[in-house]
Amino acid sequence: MCWKRLLPGWCLLVTFLLGSNQIAAERPAAGGEAADEEPATVHCQIEILRDAIVVELLIREHGQEVLDLQISDWAGRNDYSQSISDLRAYDADGNELQVDFDGLRTWRVPTSQQPFTLTYRVHPTKNSFAGEDTWDFLYPTILESHGLAWGPTFLVLPGDETFKDTRVSLSITAPEHYERVFSNIGQQQQTNLGELRYLFLAWGDYHYRDFPLDGRTVRLIVEAGDWKTSPATLINLASRILVSQANSMGIIPFNEDLLISLTMGSSSVMGGTAVPGAVSLYFDPATELTDHGSLPAYLIAHEFFHLWNGIHLRLFGHMNWFKEGFTDYYAYLTLLREGIVSPDDYLRWFNRAVSAYRQNPFALNTPVEDQGELFWSSDQFRDLVYRKGALIAFLMDRQIRTLTEHRSTLDDLMSVLMTDEKILEEGLTHANLLVALEELTGSAWDNFLEDYVNGTEPLPVEEFESAEDLLSHISTSI
Ligand SMILES: [Zn+2]
Predict the structure, then answer these.
(1) In this structure, are residues 388 and 459 in contact, taking their beta carbons and an 8 Å threshold?
(2) What pLDDT does residue 250 have?
(3) β-strand 66-70 against 157-158: which pairing, if any?
(4) 206-213, strands of its sheet edge to edge
(5) CA distance readout (Å), 147 to 130, 186, 202
(6) 161, CA 20 to 30 Å: which among 148, 316, 335, 358?
(7) What is the pLDDT of residue 28?
(8) CATH at residue 164
(9) pLDDT, tens only, 339-362
(10) Could you tell me the distance, in angstroms and rounded to a whole number, from the CA of residue 346 to the centre of ligand 1?
């Protein structure tokens, strides 16, 4: 892979098309297969209706007597199947096949190694993006005026990982009523099952604006409605954060265009999600998004940083502490570096992390490495993973600078991780993180990881008295 090192002044390439008519057309909603090409192994047809999504999956080849198709358990949820109805499978002659559903998220289709078609409807389970319950925002939003759905929550696909490179042609249709469909899968509408799984789809009533970023286009779509903060302010804020992170990491972590959605949460539902090629954020529209203790800016910075840490650099095994903790650390650091938060805001954030870590009941008895179910089932453990992970990032930065007499910082470690072909291929593991740290500093790191990540030794962190003192320990500039 070839990565472009960004040059100083590169952020000048970011210009705004706000108020301009030079807005590129949205990615085409209708697709199909070119007549002279070998048909893809799977054809996925998504038809958006006013009150449902109809999915048809034609699987031409699979080599299985019985094929298991699954909806994901994304974000620890195992009931996305509640949106699915009328699921049926047919052989090539149109005969219906007897599908066996396990009641949770797997449908077993007796295919006799033959091509078959699967069809089903996705119906709405809520009447706003935020819904009524805490996790409703994850489920497909299907409204009269607009909709938004993530592939993991409505696509029923072969569950076996060996199918991830299987070629897929994708076709999306929507009634004219909706005008536009936005998607993170590119112009060609040719993809594979691994990418299709992370389809991001939004349609209907959205404002949208584009800005160019080093030859790529970043598109920001905003749910139409009454927002207190103007789209111009939001785009300005989002682009500053994205450019700052690109400069500090030294690469742009997406090969094609990036789609960012902003939808309406509520005073209790605010957050974001990042998938390949798309970031989704949701806030209380009644809030001035640049106020509120900079929480919206922090959420933007956190989700954007996952484009680097979690999507470009994939993490496997027991690495949630790195994925969430380092993302949190860089989110707040970005805001400090951009002057979006003050040194005193930064001090408050840091001291809150220290005290939350100290008060967490899991802190001194449960290693912060991924504990599987515990991560999603316990808010307190999940909080520890974020807070302690961020404090480990701080300690690692301090240690790297001490060991290298300030020649290297945590930014250098991150740049290594983001560009090392072997790590990008394998994903970040405990073992290759250890190698990267030792190569960067020329010192042993096994005790550090053993004590604080695999173990429960108390972290040697204190609350700081002054911002000046805290800032003397971190890299405040890129
Ligand atoms: Zn996160």
Answers:
(1) yes
(2) 87
(3) antiparallel
(4) 206-213, 216-223, 258-264, 278-283, 271-275
(5) 12, 19, 6
(6) 148
(7) 36
(8) 2.60.40.3650
(9) 989 999 999 999 999 999 999 999
(10) 19
User: Using CA atoms, how far apart are residues 303 and 310, in angstroms rounded to an integer?
Assistant: 10
- Confidence check: pLDDT of 8 > 60: no
CA distance 259 to 201: 10
Q: How far is the CA of 304 from the centre of ligand 1 (A)?
A: 9
**206-236 pLDDT, tens digit each:** 988 888 888 888 999 999 988 888 877 887 8
3-state secondary structure of 170: strand
Whether the CB-CB separation of 419 and 3 falls below 8 Å is answered with yes
If you measure from the C-alpha of residue 305 to the centroid of ligand 1, how many angstroms do you get, rounded to a whole number?
8
Concatenate the DSSP letters of all residues of 22-35 into one string.
Answer: -PPPPPPS-----T
Give the number of domains in the chain: 3
Give the span between the Cα atoms of 272 and 289, in whole angstroms.
Answer: 14
Give me the helix-helix angle, 343-359 and 379-403, nearest 10°. Answer: 120
**Rounded distance, CA 79 to CA 197, Å?**
17
Give the contacts of 9 (CB within 8 A, at least 6 positions apart).
none
Residues 387 and 284 both lie in one domain: no
Answer yes or no: is 431 within a domain. yes
> Domain check: are 464 and 344 in the same one?
yes
- Contact between 253 and 308 under an 8 Å Cβ cutoff? The reply is yes
Taking the C-alpha atoms of residue 226 and residue 205, their distance in angstroms, rounded to an integer, is 13
Residues 6+ apart with CB under 8 A from 240: 338, 340
Q: Report the separation in Å between the CA atom of 325 and the middle of ligand 1, taken as the mean of its atom positions.
A: 8
- How far is residue 381's CA from residue 360's CA, in Å, rounded to a whole number? 8
Alpha helices (H) along 259-378? 295-308, 320-337, 343-359, 373-377
* pLDDT score of 287 more than 90: no
Let me know whether 57 and 145 are in one domain. yes
302 CA distance to ligand 1 middle (Å): 6
Residue 86, phi-psi category: left (phi > 0), alpha (psi -120 to 50), beta (remainder): left
- Ligand 1 centroid distance, CA of 306 (Å): 7
CA of 273 to the centre of ligand 1 (A): 7
**256-278 burial, b if ≥16 CB within 10 A, otherwise e?**
ebbbbbbbbbbeebbebbbbbbb
Please give the distance, rounded to the nearest whole angstrom, from the Cα atom of residue 307 to the centre of ligand 1: 10
Boundaries of domain holding 57? 42-204
Alpha carbons 459 and 194: distance in angstroms, whole number: 38
CA of 89 from ligand 1 middle (Å) equals 37
Return the closest-CA partner of residue 128 out of 270, 296, 264, 227. 264
Judgement on whether residues 342 and 425 belong to the same structural domain of the protein: yes
- The mean per-residue pLDDT over the stretch 10-39 comes to 37
